[in-house]
Design brief:
Helix content is 22%, strand content 25%. With 247 residues, it is an alpha+beta fold. Strands 1, 2, 3, 4, 5, 6, 7, 8 and 9 form a nine-stranded mixed sheet that branches.
Length: 247
Amino acid sequence: MRFFVELSYNGTPFSGWQRQPNATTVQSTLEDAFSMILRSPIQVTGCGRTDTGVHAKQYFMHFDFSEDFPKHFLDRLNKVLPAEIAIHRIFAVENDAHARFAAYHRSYEYHLVLSKNVFEKETAYYFPFEQFLDFDKMNEAASLLMNYDEFFPFCKTNTDVKTMICDLKRSEWVTDKSTGKLIYHVSANRFLRGMIRLIVGMCLNVGTGKVDLKTVKQAMEQQRRLEKSWSVPPQGLFLCDIRYPFI
Protein backbone atom coordinates (compact mmCIF):
# COMPACT_ATOMS: atom_id res chain seq x y z
CA MET A 1 0.00 0.00 0.00
CA ARG A 2 1.03 3.59 -0.51
CA PHE A 3 0.92 6.06 2.35
CA PHE A 4 1.13 9.84 2.47
CA VAL A 5 2.84 11.57 5.39
CA GLU A 6 2.17 15.19 6.38
CA LEU A 7 5.03 16.77 8.31
CA SER A 8 6.88 19.99 9.02
CA TYR A 9 10.52 20.72 9.66
CA ASN A 10 13.04 23.35 10.62
CA GLY A 11 15.72 23.06 7.96
CA THR A 12 18.53 24.70 9.95
CA PRO A 13 20.57 21.59 10.87
CA PHE A 14 20.03 19.77 7.57
CA SER A 15 21.83 19.85 4.23
CA GLY A 16 18.52 20.23 2.43
CA TRP A 17 15.80 17.66 1.78
CA GLN A 18 17.46 15.21 -0.61
CA ARG A 19 19.60 12.34 0.64
CA GLN A 20 23.32 12.94 0.03
CA PRO A 21 26.47 10.98 0.83
CA ASN A 22 28.24 12.13 3.98
CA ALA A 23 25.55 14.69 4.88
CA THR A 24 22.57 14.80 7.21
CA THR A 25 19.41 15.60 5.25
CA VAL A 26 15.70 15.61 6.04
CA GLN A 27 15.08 12.65 3.72
CA SER A 28 17.85 10.48 5.14
CA THR A 29 16.79 11.27 8.72
CA LEU A 30 13.19 10.25 7.96
CA GLU A 31 14.15 7.11 6.05
CA ASP A 32 16.39 5.98 8.89
CA ALA A 33 13.62 6.50 11.47
CA PHE A 34 10.92 4.78 9.40
CA SER A 35 13.21 1.86 8.55
CA MET A 36 14.19 1.34 12.17
CA ILE A 37 10.65 1.29 13.55
CA LEU A 38 9.14 -0.71 10.67
CA ARG A 39 12.16 -3.06 10.57
CA SER A 40 12.23 -2.84 6.81
CA PRO A 41 14.16 -0.62 4.35
CA ILE A 42 11.91 2.38 3.61
CA GLN A 43 12.44 4.91 0.85
CA VAL A 44 10.39 8.10 0.86
CA THR A 45 9.52 10.49 -1.98
CA GLY A 46 8.99 14.13 -1.08
CA CYS A 47 6.82 16.84 -2.63
CA GLY A 48 9.89 18.95 -3.40
CA ARG A 49 13.59 19.46 -2.77
CA THR A 50 14.26 22.27 -0.31
CA ASP A 51 17.79 23.65 -0.06
CA THR A 52 20.06 23.74 2.98
CA GLY A 53 18.52 25.87 5.73
CA VAL A 54 15.08 26.15 4.11
CA HIS A 55 12.06 25.21 6.24
CA ALA A 56 8.67 23.60 5.62
CA LYS A 57 5.54 24.58 7.52
CA GLN A 58 3.73 21.90 5.52
CA TYR A 59 5.34 19.07 3.60
CA PHE A 60 4.09 15.80 2.14
CA MET A 61 5.95 12.64 1.24
CA HIS A 62 4.91 9.12 0.30
CA PHE A 63 6.24 5.62 0.93
CA ASP A 64 5.13 2.05 0.26
CA PHE A 65 4.61 -0.59 2.93
CA SER A 66 2.70 -3.88 2.82
CA GLU A 67 2.41 -4.86 6.49
CA ASP A 68 0.55 -3.52 9.52
CA PHE A 69 2.01 -0.57 11.37
CA PRO A 70 3.20 -1.24 14.92
CA LYS A 71 1.19 0.17 17.81
CA HIS A 72 1.62 3.88 18.51
CA PHE A 73 3.57 4.21 15.26
CA LEU A 74 3.14 7.97 14.93
CA ASP A 75 4.14 8.64 18.54
CA ARG A 76 7.18 6.41 18.23
CA LEU A 77 8.28 8.19 15.08
CA ASN A 78 8.08 11.62 16.69
CA LYS A 79 9.97 10.32 19.70
CA VAL A 80 12.97 9.09 17.70
CA LEU A 81 13.04 11.94 15.18
CA PRO A 82 15.00 15.09 16.08
CA ALA A 83 13.18 18.09 17.48
CA GLU A 84 13.38 19.82 14.10
CA ILE A 85 11.03 17.32 12.40
CA ALA A 86 7.39 16.68 13.36
CA ILE A 87 5.10 14.07 11.77
CA HIS A 88 1.45 15.20 11.86
CA ARG A 89 -0.43 12.38 10.16
CA ILE A 90 -0.05 9.27 8.01
CA PHE A 91 -2.85 8.08 5.74
CA ALA A 92 -3.41 5.58 2.95
CA VAL A 93 -3.80 6.77 -0.65
CA GLU A 94 -4.22 5.17 -4.05
CA ASN A 95 -1.13 3.27 -5.17
CA ASP A 96 -0.45 5.70 -8.02
CA ALA A 97 -0.67 8.84 -5.86
CA HIS A 98 2.62 10.75 -5.99
CA ALA A 99 3.74 13.33 -3.44
CA ARG A 100 5.67 15.38 -6.00
CA PHE A 101 3.88 14.99 -9.32
CA ALA A 102 0.29 15.01 -8.04
CA ALA A 103 0.61 18.35 -6.24
CA TYR A 104 -1.13 21.10 -8.22
CA HIS A 105 -0.46 24.03 -5.87
CA ARG A 106 2.51 25.08 -3.76
CA SER A 107 3.13 28.20 -1.70
CA TYR A 108 6.20 29.73 -0.13
CA GLU A 109 6.75 32.51 2.38
CA TYR A 110 9.93 34.51 2.82
CA HIS A 111 10.28 36.22 6.20
CA LEU A 112 12.23 39.46 6.47
CA VAL A 113 12.93 41.30 9.74
CA LEU A 114 14.07 44.91 9.85
CA SER A 115 15.15 44.88 13.49
CA LYS A 116 17.81 42.49 14.72
CA ASN A 117 16.25 39.62 16.64
CA VAL A 118 18.57 37.00 18.13
CA PHE A 119 15.70 34.53 18.47
CA GLU A 120 14.86 34.56 14.76
CA LYS A 121 18.29 34.35 13.20
CA GLU A 122 17.52 30.85 11.87
CA THR A 123 13.97 31.53 10.65
CA ALA A 124 14.09 35.04 9.18
CA TYR A 125 16.54 37.19 7.24
CA TYR A 126 17.63 40.39 8.97
CA PHE A 127 17.77 43.28 6.50
CA PRO A 128 19.49 46.21 8.26
CA PHE A 129 18.72 48.91 5.69
CA GLU A 130 15.08 49.73 6.41
CA GLN A 131 15.67 53.45 5.84
CA PHE A 132 16.48 52.77 2.17
CA LEU A 133 13.62 50.35 1.53
CA ASP A 134 10.54 51.37 -0.49
CA PHE A 135 7.83 48.83 0.35
CA ASP A 136 5.50 50.00 -2.42
CA LYS A 137 8.20 49.49 -5.06
CA MET A 138 8.86 46.01 -3.68
CA ASN A 139 5.20 45.19 -4.17
CA GLU A 140 5.21 46.68 -7.66
CA ALA A 141 8.09 44.37 -8.54
CA ALA A 142 6.32 41.36 -7.04
CA SER A 143 3.07 42.21 -8.84
CA LEU A 144 4.87 42.67 -12.16
CA LEU A 145 5.73 38.95 -12.22
CA MET A 146 2.03 38.04 -12.40
CA ASN A 147 2.07 39.21 -16.04
CA TYR A 148 4.43 36.42 -17.11
CA ASP A 149 4.52 32.63 -17.23
CA GLU A 150 8.21 32.00 -18.02
CA PHE A 151 10.84 32.66 -15.35
CA PHE A 152 14.32 32.05 -16.75
CA PRO A 153 15.67 35.22 -15.00
CA PHE A 154 14.83 33.59 -11.66
CA CYS A 155 16.26 30.12 -12.14
CA LYS A 156 19.67 29.06 -10.87
CA THR A 157 22.25 28.01 -13.44
CA ASN A 158 22.99 24.35 -14.19
CA THR A 159 19.40 23.28 -13.78
CA ASP A 160 18.06 20.28 -15.69
CA VAL A 161 14.42 21.39 -16.02
CA LYS A 162 12.82 21.16 -19.46
CA THR A 163 10.57 24.20 -19.13
CA MET A 164 10.71 27.55 -17.35
CA ILE A 165 6.92 27.88 -17.33
CA CYS A 166 5.22 28.42 -13.96
CA ASP A 167 1.61 29.42 -13.37
CA LEU A 168 1.79 32.08 -10.65
CA LYS A 169 -1.34 32.55 -8.55
CA ARG A 170 0.03 35.02 -6.00
CA SER A 171 3.05 37.27 -5.66
CA GLU A 172 2.92 39.98 -3.01
CA TRP A 173 4.56 41.42 0.08
CA VAL A 174 2.56 41.94 3.27
CA THR A 175 3.42 43.45 6.63
CA ASP A 176 2.75 41.33 9.70
CA LYS A 177 1.49 44.00 12.09
CA SER A 178 2.00 41.84 15.17
CA THR A 179 5.71 41.21 14.52
CA GLY A 180 6.73 43.94 12.09
CA LYS A 181 8.00 41.33 9.63
CA LEU A 182 7.79 41.80 5.89
CA ILE A 183 6.59 38.53 4.37
CA TYR A 184 6.69 37.67 0.68
CA HIS A 185 3.87 35.31 -0.34
CA VAL A 186 4.10 33.42 -3.62
CA SER A 187 1.96 30.56 -4.96
CA ALA A 188 2.19 28.57 -8.18
CA ASN A 189 1.74 25.13 -9.63
CA ARG A 190 5.53 24.67 -9.61
CA PHE A 191 8.75 26.56 -8.95
CA LEU A 192 12.20 26.59 -10.51
CA ARG A 193 15.41 25.87 -8.63
CA GLY A 194 16.27 28.86 -6.43
CA MET A 195 13.37 30.87 -7.87
CA ILE A 196 11.90 32.43 -4.72
CA ARG A 197 15.22 33.52 -3.23
CA LEU A 198 16.14 35.20 -6.52
CA ILE A 199 12.75 36.93 -6.70
CA VAL A 200 13.11 38.22 -3.13
CA GLY A 201 16.60 39.51 -3.95
CA MET A 202 15.21 41.31 -7.00
CA CYS A 203 12.42 42.89 -4.93
CA LEU A 204 14.93 44.14 -2.36
CA ASN A 205 17.14 45.56 -5.11
CA VAL A 206 14.11 47.36 -6.57
CA GLY A 207 13.04 48.53 -3.11
CA THR A 208 16.47 50.05 -2.46
CA GLY A 209 16.79 51.61 -5.91
CA LYS A 210 19.60 49.35 -7.14
CA VAL A 211 17.41 47.98 -9.95
CA ASP A 212 14.46 49.71 -11.61
CA LEU A 213 11.20 48.13 -12.72
CA LYS A 214 11.95 48.82 -16.38
CA THR A 215 15.06 46.64 -16.14
CA VAL A 216 13.07 43.83 -14.52
CA LYS A 217 10.38 44.08 -17.18
CA GLN A 218 12.97 43.92 -19.97
CA ALA A 219 14.61 40.89 -18.40
CA MET A 220 11.26 39.11 -18.21
CA GLU A 221 10.26 40.00 -21.75
CA GLN A 222 13.63 38.93 -23.15
CA GLN A 223 13.99 35.99 -20.73
CA ARG A 224 17.51 36.89 -19.71
CA ARG A 225 19.19 37.12 -16.34
CA LEU A 226 19.42 40.36 -14.42
CA GLU A 227 22.92 41.82 -14.22
CA LYS A 228 22.36 42.54 -10.53
CA SER A 229 21.03 39.13 -9.57
CA TRP A 230 20.82 38.35 -5.85
CA SER A 231 19.82 35.10 -4.16
CA VAL A 232 18.94 36.00 -0.57
CA PRO A 233 19.96 33.69 2.32
CA PRO A 234 17.88 30.53 2.86
CA GLN A 235 16.81 30.89 6.48
CA GLY A 236 13.81 33.13 5.77
CA LEU A 237 12.19 30.70 3.34
CA PHE A 238 9.28 28.42 4.22
CA LEU A 239 7.45 25.91 2.02
CA CYS A 240 3.74 25.75 2.87
CA ASP A 241 0.23 25.03 1.58
CA ILE A 242 0.73 21.98 -0.66
CA ARG A 243 -2.51 20.91 -2.34
CA TYR A 244 -3.62 17.67 -4.00
CA PRO A 245 -6.87 16.82 -5.76
CA PHE A 246 -7.45 13.85 -3.42
CA ILE A 247 -6.83 15.59 -0.08
